[in-house]
## 1
Amino acid sequence: MREGSGRSAALAAFPVVRTASVRARCIGVEGGSLFGIDLAHRAALVAGSGGGIGGASVRALARSGAAVACIDIDERAADEAAQQATELGAHAVAIVADLSQRDHVERAVSDAEARIGPIDILVDVVGEARWGRTIEFDDEEWDATFDLVLRHFFHLARAVGRRMVERDHGGSIVAIASVSGLRSAPLHGPYGAAKAGLMSLVRTLAVELASNRIRVNSVAPGSVLTPRVMAMMSAERRAASSAAIPLGRFAEPEDVANAVAFLASDLASYITGQTLVVDGGATAQFPLSLRA
Ligand SMILES: NC(=O)c1ccc[n+]([C@@H]2O[C@H](COP(=O)([O-])OP(=O)(O)OC[C@H]3O[C@@H](n4cnc5c(N)ncnc54)[C@H](O)[C@@H]3O)[C@@H](O)[C@H]2O)c1
């Protein structure tokens, strides 16, 4: 086939995306863009929706037209996320659950489905680092990190994945990993190991669920300016760390949320089992410079 040029040829090259009718809703992509993210008529469950990356993900999905169930252990944070999504025109509900508890996971997923419909998109943001020298961690701290970072994702992906398979309508699962699981750094012992396990589980789920048209991916942020990170870092330390990042700044939560919305959408329909690194180039660079 002869290669065409201009807008009509570009449209013909990507028939899967309903570009002609799509409203360009994706944040960071203004009206008139060829590739808007359209999640209209999709139901999304965001776990850990009350935090920096979770809140931004809720807003990105809501702007893209999805109905959103905002789940968090913190009731006020879940309510606020749902409120923000509602103000953006989305159907949104808040659900309080401790997702490190298996029975809470089952209950929260059932509740979400009862209130926004069968889940098409799962975004799992829950996780928290404990920093320390590996040889100084005790077993309880090690287990607590693995429970919060990895085990809850197994429970959540299993609960949602089983429902997606049963429904036979496909789906998309996106987990928030971390560059800590890709590269080593002092004090990252259990957190990095658990995030590495999370990315491994994402790949396995992706190949197991591909025949059910369920895509499973992760996003690995570098340093993100969430309220939690801002609270624990001085301005001086942040400036010094920013200087070591090729793009010269920390990520905003929206930088990560844009990647989440992309992977959740049909624009990523041929992407599964992958980790999308969102780190301003931090892990791409060789640590030694030839310049004096
Ligand atoms: N902020 C960063 O620099 C950064 C970098 C790489 C990866 N990450 C990862 O991104 C994710 C979010 O990070 P963040 O900085 O936005 O964190 P955050 O603390 O702002 O958000 C986490 C949210 O999860 C909720 N949560 C915690 N435990 C829960 C539980 N048991 N059940 C239900 N909800 C629970 C919290 O209430 C909070 O709203 C985490 O998985 C983190 O490991 C963050």
## 2
Amino acid sequence: MEEQSMSINYAEVLKGPHQLAFDITNKCNFRCLHCYNSSGENIVVNNELTDEEVINFIKEIGEMKLFNVCFRGGEPLIRKELIYKCAKLLIEAGTTYVSLVTNGYLMTEDIAYQLKKSGIDRIQISIDGACPTTHDKLRNKKGAFDKAIKAIKILKNVGISNIDVSFCPTSFNIAEFDEVHSLLNELGIKELRVQPLMLLGRANQHLNKIMPTQFQYRQLVKRIHAINLRGKNPIVEWGDPVDHLIRFRTIAANCVSYVSIRANGDIVASPYLPLVVGNIRKYKFSEYWKAGLVTLWQNELPKKNGTKYTFYNGYE
Ligand code: SF4
């Protein structure tokens, strides 16, 4: 029997990526020592999309009915009114989830209520220590710990269903990991994300102050395994921050599942990869998608760039 070849036109089949992360602003009320994109001080800050440009982009991706659109920053709540509008538009258009990553400092009952009302039901907050001393040191902001804990309580009170916490291990907070876990258990958190420090942006400038040793990483991985074996919430998700780059250039190379948009409209292959492939000020996102963004990872350039980054995962 003659063999039949079947080629798929991914741009025809897929309307858009599974997930889209959007830095709605790169302005930030913090200057965290480990911030991978140097928020508040990078070149994007003074060239951000206007409210009108953001709304037009959101209307366009609303039509794609994506699985998840995540608002990040910077501190997204600096543009909270715009986020309410965007989330509402996305949910009304059929987006499955709209999520948000915040440092929690600006959270109030009213903001939490407005977020919930606009359709945001997944929020991630960072807790980087078991006490103000360590958390505030990394976050470079007095009062950051107390406000982050308060934000979690506020979000729970208004009924946000999915509140995840992220923890960034550093040389001075890593020993507190078990205490952080216990604290989050008391707060009713179900998922804790931990990943090795990204050696980019401000983290690079502060390596000598914050970089854990290999021994500290190994100890942390052992603690994570022990905690997960006990099955006590929150379940800890430990992963290499760049493992998506391996997936994208190998098993998921046929079609792009995740796209990141910077606050100035740049489309990047990954938030951790300095490879800009377009800008939504120049052409519509859907035009980029059809013109080849959908199969971006089949190209040599992102593949080659993607191999430059490897991070310690604690298993060696
Ligand atoms: S890590 Fe988050 S909160 Fe800290 S400076 Fe960067 S964007 Fe702001």
